[in-house]
Design goal:
Blueprint lengths: L1 H13 L13 H4 L2 H24 L6 H13 L4 H8 L3 H13 L3 E6 L2 E9 L1 H22 L4 H13 L20 H14 L5 H13 L3 E7 L5 E4 L3 E2 L11 E2 L5 H8 L3 E4 L4 E8 L4 E9 L8 E4 L8 H24 L5 H4 L8 H9 L4 E3 L3 E8 L7 E8 L7 E10 L5 H17 L4 H16 L4 E10 L5 E5 L4 E6 L2 E5 L16 E5 L6 E5 L14 H13 L5 H10 L12 E8 L6 E5 L1
Organism: Quadrisphaera setariae
Protein name: MarR family transcriptional regulator
GO molecular function, one term: DNA-binding transcription factor activity
């Protein structure tokens, strides 16, 4: 590129200026000739084409000027109409009309300025922020794809030239609330990814926290890891440049009054004022597991009464607080996305989540467990196992499977092995392997259960048997099938009422190697919550061999957690026996599925 510019300039010096278009005064007339114009015009056209194509991929139906306003508010946070007009190089009246259209679409709202009630600011709604994030990501991907083949030095030269042009808007360096202004979430994820790549596996967590602190302009950031049992948040070493006092150094009970614990239980970010500083807490919810909570010591005004500000605008939250909460949420989402892969080569992160003496059986059990959380647009599922440590009979799994021409389904599995404690995790591992193999072959649940039965019987000759409950829910929420043996109960929460659903009793897998299974329908529909409970979770229900008091306790807990996310429901169920037995005598496992789809009939497998 630089060579081409030099050649065109030398050609321009040897040609007469007759017939040339008139130039405006300035450096442009000295360095730009016809060839330059054609090259730059073609490049500009290419950029416009890329951005237009990226905009067309959005399912928002917005025009380029409207997207520009959305991007400005995303980058700068709540702003006045005049500020938006200046940033988009349009008139105030044009910017105001564009804001009216975006407001009608539910993408922005007008709010009072926190320091001057006479001033009105434009602020993106949650839907607007989501649209902005998707737009910035698509735009960045399009430009990155176009420049991918360029040598690094050429890209650096282009960026340097653009930065030197006063007509090119400055690119902000950090997220809203940080010291240097806002940055797009895509840039944050890129920076955090670079930090992870540059770090040793055992330093991945610290690198992510340091990158989050830098992006937020925070004095420090810390990750509180959810313990294996789900009872505590275990503090990892904080990272940052400022004073770290006030961040926890001891385990934080999840059921305590801690704001960090409240953020996890409520699945929502919170701001906390302690009179000296502001803290932000955001749950770190990965696609496969609940990681914990990201806490950041934020800059700026520490004043205000003790309390928390929620993302929904309650308790006096202003525009700045909303931007900060969004920023912390983005950081937490990035940590959830990057941390599992970044720490895959090092077991210390997983070991740091253990809150009990470990055994070989527990190690086998831990390594075979599937995800503890899975979310699709129509079905959200979670599983939790509270181990008995010396027994290790249970296992769980969550997965998305292909089901022929359908849109796919979510599979949930809960296992409980009937055998000695040394054999139990091995028998459960064989059953899980058979079930996962059946998924890969596209088998239905009846055939999957038969394969597990055959595999366990072949491995142990009838000396071990595995009770199981299998659930397959279509990803559109329209249908499902369930298979269960005698150790499990199913509960449906619908319209504020909990009902224990009758399940047919099946043979445990591995007893004979020849069990047969059939399906029958069950009444489930959109908006229902289905909870599957093992014999050690929440105590047994009356139908599962427990007492009426046990059944009442499960019903009460499900009503108490009706507004909570599935991962909080199963955490509470699995921990319920711990309130009676400091050292549980058997594993406690529960699975929760929320049906968010268009409704439909659900089927249960029965022998």
């Amino acid at each position: 590129m630089c060579k081409g510019l030099r050649n065109s300039r030398s050609r321009a010096a040897s040609r007469p200026s007759a017939g040339r278009h008139p130039r405006r005064p300035g450096w442009h007339s000295a360095v730009v000739d016809d060839d330059d114009e054609r090259i730059l015009g073609a490049a500009a056209g290419r950029v416009v084409d890329l951005v237009t194509a990226a905009a067309a991929e959005l399912d928002a139906g917005l025009t380029p000027p409207q997207l520009r306003v959305v991007a400005v508010l995303h980058e700068q946070g709540p702003s006045s109409v005049s500020t938006v007009a200046a940033a988009t190089r349009s008139s105030v009246s044009t910017a105001s009309r564009t804001a009216d259209r975006l407001s009608a679409l539910g993408l922005l709202e007008r709010v009072e300025a926190p320091d001057d009630r006479r001033e009105v600011l434009l602020r993106l709604t949650r839907r607007g922020r989501s649209t902005a994030q998707e737009w910035v990501q698509r735009r960045s991907d399009a430009v990155a794809g176009a420049l991918q083949a360029w040598p690094p030095e050429h890209r650096a030269a282009l960026v340097g030239l653009l930065r030197s042009d006063p007509a090119v808007p400055a690119v902000p360096a950090v997220l809203p609330g940080g010291a240097g202004g806002p940055v797009a979430p895509a840039a944050l994820r890129s920076a955090m990814l670079e930090a992870v790549h540059a770090a040793e596996p055992h330093r991945a967590l610290a690198a992510l926290c340091a990158a989050a602190a830098a992006a937020l302009g925070a004095r420090a950031a810390q990750l509180l890891l959810l313990s294996r049992s789900g009872s505590e948040l275990l503090p990892a070493p904080p990272a940052g440049t400022g004073p770290l006092d006030g961040l926890p150094t001891a385990p934080v009970p999840v059921d305590s009054g801690s704001r960090a614990a409240e953020a996890l239980r409520g699945s929502t970010p919170l701001l906390e004022h302690d009179g000296r500083r502001r803290l932000a807490h955001a749950p770190v919810l990965g696609r496969r597991e609940v990681v914990g909570v990201l806490t950041a010591v934020l800059p700026g005004r520490p004043g205000g009464a003790d309390g928390a500000q929620r993302a929904d605008g309650g308790d006096g939250e202003d525009g700045e607080d909303a931007a900060l909460l969004d920023a912390v949420r983005v950081c937490a989402d990035a940590v959830a996305l990057l941390l599992p892969a970044a720490s895959a080569g090092d077991r210390r992160l997983e070991q740091s989540r253990r809150d009990h003496e470990w055994t070989v059986s527990a190690e086998v059990q831990d390594r075979q467990l599937g995800p503890s959380r899975l979310a699709t647009p129509a079905v959200v599922a979670a599983a939790q196992l509270q181990p008995a440590w010396s027994v290790c009979t249970d296992a769980h799994d969550l997965d998305v499977v292909a089901t022929g021409a359908d849109a796919g389904a979510v599979d949930a599995v809960l296992l409980d092995c009937r055998s000695g404690r040394r054999t139990a995790p091995l028998a459960a591992a064989v059953a899980l392997a058979a079930l996962r193999h059946a998924r890969g072959l596209g088998r239905d649940l009846s055939r999957a259960a038969s394969l597990a039965d055959e595999a366990v019987f072949d491995a142990f000759g009838g000396a071990a048997a595995v009770d199981l409950v299998l659930v397959r829910v279509a990803r559109d929420g329209g249908s499902a099938v369930v298979l269960a043996t005698e150790l499990f109960t199913a509960h449906r929460l619908r319209d504020g009422v909990v009902e224990e659903l009758p399940l047919a009793v099946h043979e445990a897998a591995g007893g004979t190697g020849g069990a047969q299974y059939v399906e029958h329908p069950l009444d489930l529909r959109e908006g229902d919550r289905l909870v599957l409970v093992g014999d050690g979770a929440g105590r047994r229900t009356a139908a599962g061999g427990g007492t009426a008091e046990d059944a009442s306790a499960v019903e009460g807990l499900l009503l108490e957690t009706a507004a909570a996310a599935p991962h909080e429901v199963v955490r509470r169920l699995a921990l319920a026996p711990a309130s009676h037995d400091p050292e549980p005598q058997e594993d406690a496992t529960a699975v929760c599925l929320d049906l968010l789809g268009d409704g439909g009939e659900v089927a249960v497998l029965q022998r």
